[in-house]
Amino acid sequence: MYVVRRLTVILGCIAVAIGLMAVAPASQAAPAAPARTTACARAKATTSADLAARARTKRGMVRAERALAKAKRSHRHPRIAHARKALRTRTRAHRRAVTALRNARAAQVRACASTGTGTGTGTGGTGGTGGTGGTGGTGGTGGTGGTGGTGGTGGTGGTTGTTSSAQGLGALLAVLSARSVGGSVPSLDPSGLTSLIDVLYPGAGDLLSTSQLTSILDGYNGLSGLDTAGLTDLLGGLSGTGSLDPSQLLGVLGGGSLDPSQLTDLVSVMTGLLGNLDGTGLSNPTDPTALVSALLGTLLGGQTTDPTQALGTLLGILTAAGNNGSIPTLDLSQFTKLLNGLYPGASTALGSSELTSLLGDFPGAGSMSQSQLTDLLDGLGLTGLDPSQLLSVLHVNGASLSSGQLNTLTSTITGLLSGVGNGTTFTDPSNPLGSVGSLLNNVLCLLLC
């Protein structure tokens, strides 16, 4: 009898042990979530490296553009050919970096979107086999079934801003972009839009979701189709937009300018809207006009024109329009006086090397064909200017610029100067042609007397 009881206890213990062993697979399904977290972190690191590579290749392309512009002014063909080859190499490297960054961002979205979406795969343990009853003994107790594995907790989606906030931000980005290129909104893809945001708020573009970027891009591209009432409605439901003047903002599309206070308010509202969308506290960029040089430099990828060359050429055309179709021959001192007369403080913002470069390009339009001027303007995305009408001032006796073309030319020069001038914000001269004539008669009298 004693042996039977001992055998019953032993068989019961074996049954319980078998049940516990069956539970083990449930706990072995958990490591999937850490693996997904590691993949997300690796994808973010790759994106950061590619972002740095894009910035590095962008700087290299800017240096190559400036070297080509300098080579052209030397009129040495071997030097020009070498500079062009270097620019092509730098441009290809930049485009490869842009493509790599785009792919890395897409991979990051895929890797990080799945983080925390574990699925329970635990299988309940199999009940133990009942003990065999001995003579007169009681059958062993069946093993307890294993507890099923608990599914992983799904990840929580990031907080997104409203569609109207994103579209409002896109519309304001379009206004600032149009101001930079003489009244037209440059065409951007999602990668270009992210780069544009990063120019003003470094790293902020990476914090936006795909849906947020899509809404911002919709607002950016939709600005041209809005009238004053439409833009008023879009901005009306957003906080902090009361100081903005929709009619003045839309006036930029026609070549108009922004008051300095309106530009400051525009940037402040953009900062607030973007901060609400990506959930971070942002501050106003200290140099909002850095956007100008970024757009006119390498932000749009295919742009290869040196902004300084375009600025000098357009200044020559504006001067000819106010000087009976003639671009005067100026030395550096005279050119500096003319430029400061149109834009007070410009020579201080530019520095001697930029002034020398501008003077070298100042008479350039006089020897340009229409196709050459078109290529120059297209290289910066300056679609609001008419090369045929601009050159007619130089080559057609008595030709003049229409008021719309004059406004666009003036605002384009102002935007280029603000970008080249190390972030100094300039405003359009109220009467550019009259100012040119007065400066050439009074300050530069020796040219005409």
Protein architecture, described:
The structure is a single chain. With 449 residues, the chain is mainly alpha-helical. Helix content is 62%, strand content 0%. It contains 18 helices and no strands. The protein has helices spanning 2-27, 32-74, 77-113, 163-180, 190-200, 210-222, 228-236, 246-251, 260-278, 290-299, 307-321, 332-342, 346-350, 352-361, 370-378, 387-395, 403-420, 432-442. Helix 5 runs antiparallel to helix 10 (290-299) and helix 11 crosses helix 14 (352-361).
Give the helices and strands, then pairings.
Layout: H1 2-27, H2 32-74, H3 77-113, H4 163-180, H5 190-200, H6 210-222, H7 228-236, H8 246-251, H9 260-278, H10 290-299, H11 307-321, H12 332-342, H13 346-350, H14 352-361, H15 370-378, H16 387-395, H17 403-420, H18 432-442
Helix pairs in contact: 2-3, 4-6, 4-9, 4-10, 5-10, 10-17, 11-14, 11-17, 12-18
End-to-end separation? 137 Å
| Strand percent estimate | under 5%
**Number of E-type strands:** 0
Poorly predicted regions: 23-32, 115-161, 300-304
Radius of gyration, in Å, reads: 34 Å
The SSE order reads HHHHHHHHHHHHHHHHHH
Global structural class: mainly alpha
Percent helix range: 55-70%
Distinctive features:
single chain, 449 residues, mainly alpha, elongated
Summed up, what is this model?
By secondary structure, the protein is mainly alpha-helical. Helix content is 62%, strand content 0%.
